[in-house]
Amino acid sequence: MxxxxxxxxxxxxxxxxxxREVEAHLQAxxxxxxxxxxxxQAALYALLGPGKRMRPVLLIRCCEAMGGRLxxxxxxxxxxxxxxxxxxxxxxxxxxxDDDLRRGRPTLHRHTNEAMAILTGDLLNxxxxxxxxxxxxxxxxxxxxxxxxxxxxxxxxxxxxQVMDTLPDFGPETPPxxxxxxxHRSKTGALIRAACRMGVICAGGLEDEARRAQxxxxxxxxxxxxxxxxxxxxxxxxxxxxxAMGKAVGKDQDRGKLTYPGLLGVERSRRQVAELRxxxxxxxxxxxxxxxxxxxxxxxxxxxxR
Amino acid sequence: MxxxxxxxxxxxxxxxxxxREVEAHLQAxxxxxxxxxxxxQAALYALLGPGKRMRPVLLIRCCEAMGGRLxxxxxxxxxxxxxxxxxxxxxxxxxxxDDDLRRGRPTLHRHTNEAMAILTGDLLNxxxxxxxxxxxxxxxxxxxxxxxxxxxxxxxxxxxxQVMDTLPDFGPETPPxxxxxxxHRSKTGALIRAACRMGVICAGGLEDEARRAQxxxxxxxxxxxxxxxxxxxxxxxxxxxxxAMGKAVGKDQDRGKLTYPGLLGVERSRRQVAELRxxxxxxxxxxxxxxxxxxxxxxxxxxxxR
Lengths: 306, 306
Known about the structure:
2 copies of one chain form a homodimer.
Chain A (H helix, E strand, L loop, with lengths): L17 H15 L4 H11 L6 H12 L4 H22 L9 E2 L2 E2 L1 H4 L2 H26 L1 H26 L9 H28 L5 H31 L2 H4 L5 H4 L5 H5 L1 H17 L9 H12 L3
Antiparallel strand pairs in A: 1-2
Helix pairs in contact in A: 1-2, 1-4, 2-6, 3-4, 3-8, 3-14, 4-6, 4-7, 4-8, 6-7, 7-8, 8-9, 9-13, 9-14, 13-14
């Protein structure tokens, strides 16, 4: 980078490194499953574009913060990335956001065609649950139910949030800021929170009361950084360039969508980010150094530039 | 009916009656779940149009044949109907089959709009797994994993079958009849077979070897009537009227799609139905009168006129 940026203040190190393991696991899962070749290729295209892998990394880091191992978390991490990618593919469709560019590449319906993009999204949605059932069914059968519950509830929430965002149905009595918060709590917050909770479930031992309290701490953490993620996203849509983001920017405003900077202004939105960053740290109060990666993740997500 | 029909030869009686319970349960599940009103209405429209409820009824009748109760099967029956309805909504979309009519009513994207139809299909796909996890999570937690596995594997198969059917990717070495069989084994067969297997899982007791053998019998039954269902569907597309079917007919032929009557002719297709009907009865050899509803279902599905 040619200029000093606040992002430089966060030493990422190998913080996001588990994302590479997730990508390898996604690829292996897709290659192992019998599928028509064109569908498999489309699914791999949707899954393996450049990306931060934020949800799977969060899931893995939460599992590790609870003393679990990467391997225990990998199938759940792959499943949550499938859900995220399914939502991106469908959100980009002509009947939805009608986007041509995603992560710096043509969107899937541009790369293939609309029917294939619809069906690939459908496949990834369902495949996530197949992966949970198949992967944990033999190694940790008692975790399948809780993992499926977390992921399905959050995914339904995410879809409901997309409806609230694009096909709003609020009564006139709902103030704009409350609308915006409800949209984002559902649309992005629920899945990020679920990532954290699923990581804890993968680590196991939830019959222990102290660990259940830690689950609640990590739920709060997830909820907080989920909201922070969205405020930052809205800010980036105003202040960043398409080049840096790898997707179209300024579209929220053009479309008259509710956004944090639009409602609160840029400065108040930035203060909101700082406050949420502090709250994310507080929610990790029950943890020692084992949660340091989560602290650094919160810092990184507060200052990210794409 | 003004003329004697072969269908009259099968006394349906209350064979399909559990379908009404399934509809009531679907309605209750949708009303209980917090959702934006417009999304809830769209989901109810997609779920509660007139329909045979074949998959949930099969699931329930298989559960009962194994000594289980309707109540044990009801959430799984609702879940499989959600998957079926999700697939109908997405298959009808302009980018897919572009159908205006379904079950005698406007298709969902005609009734609402395309974005809502995409999102409603997505919701029903995911909600099916939420229902399995939530409903059995407390009453029969050890059944969540096996149920999720059956339903997710079959749904992925169904989606793969839709890709094979509409975006074919077969090598030139695959003969047409084999293509057709592979398409239908995936597109309709897998979910019908899963309905039967899920019914057995709902009844429980699969640590018993004799019951596991019964599971295999009901799997074969499901596979057989799944294939039979499709041959009959293809025949009806040739011989029935849009009025009787509640959807457009003759479209397969117009589109040059592979069909059984197209490949084998009407008469050989009819003999195929008769043969499959016999095979369905054979697969129930391990069962006494408790499987009579399944025998009558096979008879009904062989001679149905819509």
